[in-house]
Model the fold of this input.
Amino acid sequence: MTGTMSSDEWNARYAASAGAVWSIEPNAWVAETLGGLSPGTAIDLGAGEGRNSLWLATRGWTVTAVDFSAVGLARGAQREAQLGVTVEWVCADATSWTPSAPVDLVLLSYLHFDADTIRDLLRRAAGWLTPGGSLAVIGHDVQNVADGVGGPQDPSVLYSVEILRSGANELEIDVVGQHLRQVAGAGRPAIDTVLLAHRPARPAPSPVSQSK
Done:
């Protein structure tokens, strides 16, 4: 999802499609990167039709899916019963919404705004994490306009390694860089920027010395 379209425009786009606008499968990088994490509480910001939220829920996560498109979220909610899972669907603006309690994972998947807004959102998301909690981000890289395929064509809302690194500077960064994504029928891959970072666990308390 991008900040270049309003909630009304996204609602109209989802409503005009007979089926899912996006794949019902989770993003491949998300599945590969988060598949080994122990389930806990998670927030999927800019969840769209909920493909990543539902996948996390099937793996035992307690998920809150946040998006400003009520129609997109309703699409995701329709699949809950089929999958036998439960997701909390929250219709809200991702740039201003705040959770009521810390969580173990925050995911941003193709949520695009200008650089300052993304940095601010990443800093806010970092503050929502429990000790040891993870922040995972994937989005279209600015280089994708010239050398990749698909995605927004406005460079001002695209990611770069510098933007993600600076936005997550309060966390320990595990992975940050460009990621090539194969697109069926395209002559070249799409170029994404990815980030995986975590909040350090609290250090063990120092033993209390006892005087004799």
